[in-house]
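Anyone? Bumping this.
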Amino acid sequence: MRYLGFRFIRSILLLLGVSLLCFLFTEIAPGSFFDEMRLNPQISPETISAMEARYGLDQPWPDRYWRWLRSIARADLGYSISYNVPVAPLLWSRAKNTLLLTISAMVLTWIVSVPVGFWAAVHRGRFADHMVTVVSALVVAIPEVVIALSFLAIAVRWRILPVGGMASVDSDGLSFLAKQSDIGLHMLLPTLILVTVESAIIVRHVRASVLEVLEAPYVHAARALGISQVRLLLRHVLPVAANPAITLLGLSLAGLLSGSLLVEVVCGWPGLGPLILEATLARDLYLVIGGLMLSALFMVGGGLFADALLLLFDPRIRTGGVDAH
Amino acid sequence: MKRITHLTLLVCLLAGVCISGSSTTKPSVAGEEVQRMAALSGRSGGHLVIGQRAEPKTLNPVTATDAISREVSGRLMADLIEINRVTQQTEPALAKSWKVSTDGRTFTLQLRKGIRFSDGHPFDADDVVFSFKVYMDEEVGSPQRDLLIIDGNPITVTKLDQYTVRFTLARPYAAAERLFDGLAMLPKHLLEKPYREGRLAQTWPLNIAPAEIAGLGPFRLKEYLPGQRIVLERNPYYWKIDRDNQRLPYLDELVFLFVGSEDAQVMRFEAGETQVISRLSSDNYKLLSRNQERTRSQLVDMGPSLEYNFLVFNQNDLTSKKLDAIAHKQAWFRDIRFRQAVSAAVDRESIVRLVYGTRGAALWGNVGPGNKLWVNQGIAHPKRSLDSARQLLKSAGFSWNRTGELTDAAGQVVEFSIITSSSNTQRMKMATLLQEDLSQLGMQVHVVPLEFRAMIGRVFQSLDYEAAIMGLGGGDADPNPEMNVWTANGTSRLWNLNPSHPANGWEREIDELMQKQMVTLDYTKRKQLYDRVQQLIAENLPFIFLATPNILAGADAKVGNFRPAVLEPSTLWNADELYVRTPNAESAGAR
Amino acid sequence: MRIRTAALIGLLLVLHLGLLLAGFVAPYSPIAQNRQLSYAPPTKLHFRDYTGWHLRPFVYEWMIAPDGYVEDQSRAYPVSLFVKGHSYKMLGLFDASLHLFGTTEPGKILLFGTDGFGRDEFSRVVYGGQISVAAGIVATLIALILGSTLGMIAGYYGRWLDEAVMGATELFLSLPWLYFLLGVRAFLPLHLSPLRTFFLLTCVVGLIGWAKPARLIRGLVLSIRSRNYVLAATGFGASNLYVVRRHIAPEVMGNLLTQAALLIPQYIAAEVTLSFFGLGVSEPLPSWGNMLSNLQQYSVLTSYRWLMAPAGALLITSVTYYLLADALHSRLKSRST
């Protein structure tokens, strides 16, 4: 309990550090939001400077950071320069779309990967295991961006799935059920890409950790004593192999908001990723920082959650044994 | 997929007919002075979907500066005088007629009587006066304010009676009536309160309730889905009718879909999800034309655009900055023969062929063949010649060393970098071609792709660059918007911003000519002046002009009255005239 | 097991040797533009003409046709091995002009076709591999050296040092580095040559990547340190240096090798991702990343499929590294138990 409390404080410090560094990053990147207007010969530089002053962009960054921190305390994330609306509701409306995508992908990934990894480990050395190893190596080898583009090209070529956006243009007239299935169809492509990419990694990890346990002396002993395969796997192997799996789960949770940036951009899914990317390129300061902080919050939260789970499940940590993480 | 679209369209049409909702046109009120388009006809009903590369930022015409936001807000609003994008001439719009005083300083506009905003509220001169007050208010900070300040003096707006407004300029301004296009007339009854409270710039964000926004344009806001689309519906009070006295617009709905990138736009268009596509690159145009027989789409190549792409050398005065390495190289950049040699070595034909897929035009000046009214046909178009380039360099004191590198008189190797925006694939390709061209002269050129805003920062503010490939122009055909590029203290005078000593020679002559043409009202005289400006620019090469792309656009076969233009917004400028042909009429094919 | 590891290592060596000797393997210069041959498809190798079968293959020139290219069958150019071609610098040291294969001018053997500027794609893949693989290796070295040093310190000395390092790793793992890199690129000086700029970026990427290896090494060191025999050795009076040299270092080395085999392909892939965002090597130098980033345009992706060649090269290299990592991992496991 004390341990968790300590981790919590560290997480808060971490978030503060992240926010400070984000502010610094955006400070380093040259240019401001209004630079695009300089290209328009009909707008005078005085107008542009006046606009910058109105948003407080000409003030030194420590002042701006301090003011931002104070407004955070009031749960006010500031204003977006491009959209002229408060940042928080804008972020949240997009974050919902991202979470829909990533949570579905995560659930599917785990449903697929755990049994496959298990199965490969149990049938180690045989054809099935080789297939799993080689295929997962292939998928891990290709950069995510290439996989995403290939899937996209196939989907467009063969018109099997709708591409881009979250719902069809005429979906308003449809019934609730039809609307949900329309969203589901649009979600299929990005989810497929995410599941493919993540399963390959998770399968490898599950397989590796199960293998490790299978070769432990007590498992050999149990097998020699005549315990059935099923009981062995479920009662003895699974709990131990669960430890690294829970860490992985924590990492998956942590990446819920940030891991799908590439897929969202490529497939046109209206999530948080494209919003932050565009805001970064446009130097929409508070939107960028708000978005990055939200991602960081999830990352830190995911890690904290995983640690709590580990504490619950793994007695070795509770009793302060060998450092299990 | 297509069948479903057809079915839904049919359902929409039936629904539109059956439901006599508020979106059907209203009968004319007695005394309403509508504008009759005598040559126009079409079929009422249907909807069109248009893909946009990014999300618009706001619906507020006072603060919207990016093209995407203006594409949407422009359909909701109307101006006093509009520029017909095809003829490039002004036409009456909300002002049914106007008189200009002989000295060209006073414009008296007669407004149409009996017209109403999209929420039914009547429109009159009070709205006009209010709109201009807002645009010129420094507190509001509209970027369009600068348009209305001529020589430091703002335009004065006086209401003469309920339907007459007088505009007075401090001095005559050529083609002043073109200024009115793009200045949307705002509803005083909705915006006066926010204006008094100082929050006008924050009103009308994308998620505004439709009841709180009103305009005089052909459409009004129906719905906004964040991150996905914005839906406009017909404005039942729109003040134009066609030759059969049918009230415009023809379309029931206009939908803007946020698709994210040009490639996504093309994919959706091919899939039939969107029906109009603009700003096509030549690669995508070729792709779409391959499938044209099957999809029966209308693909139009409007010819060269008004944009000009160029290479600019940094000739700014760098004495106050610590940029010695660049200052040293400016000795080369400032030599006219060096620039002429570079221009002679550029392979413009390859740029047009490889970058624009032959759908473009080479440029030797700032006004290209697409601007038929103002282009100077007499400017020389010399063919690429490496020999004359070498001659020019020799006469400027350059020579080649043993390894073939070009060196200046002091023996320093000629080496410099060209920056360009990494997100603009066409200019990146031009940079690669230029690099190879100039290497044949022995110059070592590095191509440095920079993120867009970083590049702008260097070119406009820090001046920390050696050469850059950029593009300007494309706004209007008239020379006046180019004032800031060519006059002495112009903000876009990229090769030498804020010169420390007064310009002399050709730069001063250009400055004087531009100032003169701004106050010359007669077109022939203006053309003579501007021709001379173009001649001077082509001879002295402050920019080395490269090429311009053609305007390429496409629409589904069933879109009627599709008339893309060279001026922006090329496909939607006549959104009120677009209509959807019936399924039977499709077999009649494209125009 | 041993044979498989050896085979994989051999394959990797051959690949890397081929990349190192890019000038020899590639028939043309990677930056030579041929503006009349833009987007030409791969040249077909023919073994048979109207006179019958030949042992030596030959090629035809590409002629521009209304809808692409068509073979000009009027003249055949035989392909030979070990031909003299344009000169290059072998290993950057001495001039050479011998090439593995080629054909007589003006015939061209374009195994992977050409890109938009008419540059030979095969030569670009080979030269590009030099940059991409080198970037991957350099970034991996930096990340591993920094990460293992810090990880070992954290794991061995423990307590507040451990807390500090672990806190730093958490910070580094939580930050969105892509946005940072966009900013860094923007304010690097223009006067650096493109290659140096790129390697600077690679170093930054490596510096960022120290966090994950650090955590792994720290965990490893902690577990070794608490093993029975190590505790026994310390009990018997062994010095820190002895414990490190005898027990910790060998296992850490093995782990590092496995990690290297995993990280190199990841950093090569990172180079591809960076190029997609405009942060890669700039023109005219090729790298697998900047060649693939041209495929972002849908029209290019569907019309000119031969430009996917770098993806194939990337695939082969990455898969080989991953299989090697798997093999090393199993060997390490079997050795330590």
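Late reply, but here is one note on the structure posted above: Chain A touches chain B through 50 residues (CB under 8 Å).
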